[in-house]
Amino acid sequence: MKRLLKLLLNIKLTIIDKVEIVGGPDIWGMCVIVHVHPTKGQLLRCPICAKRMPYKDGGRGIRDWRALDLGVMRVYLRGKAPRVECAKHGVLVASVPWARHDSWFTYAFEEQVAWMVKQSTQKTVISQIFRIDWETVGSIAKRVEEDVRKKMPSPFDGLVNIGIDETSYRRGHKYLTVVVNHDTGAVIWAHVKHGKEVLTKFFELLTEEQRASIENVTGDGAGWITECVEEFCPNAKRLLDAFHIVAWATDALDNVRRRVVNDLKKEEGKEKKEKRKRGRPKKGEEVKPSASATVKKSRFAVLKNPEDLTENQQAKIELLALENGQLYRAYIYKERLRLLLKLPVDDATPELDSWLSAACRSRIPEIVELSKKIRRHRARIIDTVASGLSNARVEAVNNKIKVTIKLAYGFRNLENLISLIYLRCSILPLSLPGRRPHKKAG
């Protein structure tokens, strides 16, 4: 019976003394108490270095560790928790073979909770299934992530293509810096805040060999990313994400549209118009929208790709070509820049030079400023086209992070949030207790 119970609870190197069923003082009802103690070889060991250490005192005496449920009944392992005096780590509670250090739960219980969290399960569902608080779930995820990561090779080995970006985790300009390995699609590092000081911490974790292996670094046009790459990986190519390059052009185009709308409103205000009587227009009377209103409503048409336009939006573009040449020309510049980023590098290079030559002489202030920005990043844009890399993987990870935060209704402890990001967005092997990791076919 004791052997069967050890198999059901997935505990090893443990001796069961006795089992009793007691009535629970809370709403969960009755529970099973399993009295245990470690085998002789596992007694009085430091929880950090795992070495045998001299006995210090009895600590807090008897402790309970939550184990996996048996059917509908909760199970607790009850045993002594003496303290040992380690010459290196000081006075600590001796390790036990069924639970991690500083944990009130068994290995199997924590692994099952962490696996459930990784599957995008909602906060309330996990809390009700395991009968624990959500803050407890966060600390469990942190312990499991750290334990699994220690057994894995360094995620910084063999880095070739990496992506860097920041994502918000809370309102009020609260950001996380995320580094992704393009070749595996996994998060290899995350940290609270963003900027050069934060990204410097990542590069300082790398050895000289690990830094030298990095060939391409993608990201937006942030200067702090460029400065860190030039300082720590001078031989790596600093690539710009094509999405952000097009975003620069769409921002410039939207600024042109707003300026045109304001100019038209000023002209319309100066013109004397006949005042129409109040009430509905008479039958057959046609009221045409003003030119400023027409341009104002063309925002989504000019910002979308031509292949995605509806018939109504296509008609708005054709109307702009006839009545507002400046805005239409800005639209053409945006489209030319977007399309040249998809060309082979041998064709994209002369096309980019032609675009720069025309944009700087366009006499559209916003497009001229855009051409200056593009010219500063010309070499990086050509390298981006040649590599074919983008920040799409990083943006996908950012979406996963936002979903994680939404499911958890926010995180008070940011360290737990980062651990959960590693669990869900990296390649850490995590399986249900008592089962082997599933191997994908092929």
Write the layout of secondary structure elements.
Blueprint: H1 2-9, E1 14-22, E2 31-38, E3 55-57, E4 62-70, E5 73-80, E6 83-86, E7 90-93, H2 107-118, H3 123-130, H4 134-151, E8 161-170, E9 174-181, E10 186-192, H5 196-205, H6 208-213, E11 216-219, H7 223-232, E12 237-240, H8 242-270, H9 291-296, H10 299-303, H11 311-323, H12 325-340, H13 345-359, H14 365-376, H15 378-387, H16 392-408, H17 414-425
Parallel strand pairs: 2-5, 8-11, 11-12
Antiparallel strand pairs: 1-2, 3-6, 4-5, 6-7, 8-9, 9-10
Describe this protein's structure.
This protein has about 450 residues and is α/β, with parallel strands linked by helices. Among the domains are: about 1-105, no CATH class; about 240-265 and about 290-385. The chain is built from 17 helices and twelve strands. The strands form three sheets. The chain has a five-stranded mixed β-sheet, with helices on both faces. A hairpin with a 2-residue loop joins strand 4 (about 60-70) and strand 5. The longest helix is centred in the middle third of the chain and has 29 residues, at about 240-270. The two termini are about 40 Å apart. The relative contact order is 0.11.
